[in-house]
């Protein structure tokens, strides 16, 4: 069936086809990339006037307004991001301290949890404002904290989570 000559012809045909493909690719690159790579000036520039009056301003909503309209059910869903490290049962510390009764609790006061020096030295209480700032970006609110969470970008998510945590100890 297959002798050496047939195999040689098939192998030669495949190598020849590969060579033609590579040479075609090289030729196409030379044709379409004339002048090399680099910064090129635009051939036609469209002038556009900037309008300051048409710019939409972002309206900031106060934390009190967000908390007043917070949805505890949505806060429970947001808590799923926290549940990998935090528990909701009093005294049940995980990688992070337990969060039962965290709203208006002293910062760094969860029994049996070893806080980082930064959080242990801050003092004060976990007010809604402090929680909002911490949840937005923990590394900015408490530089040097060991909490690895990047933060919650949406203010509504933070307000929903704070309302959910506050509802647990009522």
UniProtKB/TrEMBL annotation:
Domain Cytochrome c as annotated: residue spans: 70-169
GO molecular function: electron transfer activity; heme binding; metal ion binding
Domain of life the protein comes from: Bacteria
Keyword Heme on entry: yes
The UniProt record lists the keyword Manganese: no
InterPro entries reported for this sequence: Cyt_c-like_dom (IPR009056), Cyt_c-like_dom_sf (IPR036909), Cyt_c_1A/1B (IPR002327)
Name by which UniProt lists this protein: Cytochrome c-552
The species this protein was found in: Ascidiaceihabitans donghaensis
Name of the gene this protein is made from: cycM_1
